[in-house]
Prior knowledge:
alpha/beta, Rossmann fold, Arc Repressor Mutant, subunit A, five-stranded parallel sheet, four-stranded antiparallel sheet, 8 helices
Amino acid sequence: MSGEPLVLVIDDEVAIRRLLRVSLEANGYRLHEVASGQAGLQQVAMLRPDIVLLDLGLPDMEGLEVLRRLREWSHVPVIVLSVRDSDAEKIALLDAGADDYLTKPFSMGELLARLRAARRHIQPAGDAPVFQSGALSVDLSNRIVTLGGEVVKLSVTEYALLRVFVQHAGKVLTHRQLLREVWGPSYETEIQYLRVYMTMLRRKLEATPTDPKMFVTEPGVGYRMNIIDLEE
């Protein structure tokens, strides 16, 4: 069996599928293509791909419905590709279980970066005893956070927020998801709470808090924790 990761593309646009095949195969991926939602669901079950690229405008059903059905039985990372760009739609997709989204047209460099992030959370970073991103190290079993080898003191809430990011590193998290995980369901609309703690977390863990590289804002949607390679 090949060691190259298998990407299942669910998209009815022939030109997009052709572009993805040429570009991704040149970068070490295997590709399988289908043009409908139903065929996509069947192929996920049969092929067990490493990552799914899902278009929203499919001929037989909405991509959101494909995603909801898929999430009833599979945790495969799903990156949504769509010409639609409303914040409400992005939030609905993320809440339904999408791992990421890209708005068409997109650059191949950006897609490859998102694929690398998705591959990292095939085995979630939070499963490792020590999470590393650049100079940041988080020892989840001992609840120790260090930056450049120096221990960083976090409040209980700051650590709880960081832990959620570590467990979903590389993935977009909506405001509602973060508020629910850290503060509880009754706080899902209290976005100001989240903004205050994001500011504090950035001040303690970012090299330049006003220009964050690790905890990045997804405008109108939420936040993403980037995994920074040590050499960066």
